[in-house]
Amino acid sequence: MITFRLTLKPIFMKKVIFMSVMALFLTMSVTSCRDTEEKDDRTENERIIDDMKADGAEIKVKEDDGDTKIKMETDDKKVKIKEDDGDVKVKVKTDNDDN
Asked: The pTM is what?
């Protein structure tokens, strides 16, 4: 009985150490990949406006009674954004569209 306890303890400790190392490895590998991408807090409209500005678009903004209309136009793309009372509508038309 004494020899059984002595041989059981090192095997048990090896398993505990192995499981601890594997759990640590798994935790480190998952958390290291979590925030590799930059977070972009801008809305879709802000991203579209910034992209169109970068493309050199002509931008026209019209505001009246809570309604905002933004028209942006480049040589090959037209974007209209209409905001009224919280509703936002975005229309994107490129030259190869049939719309």
From this structure: 0.53
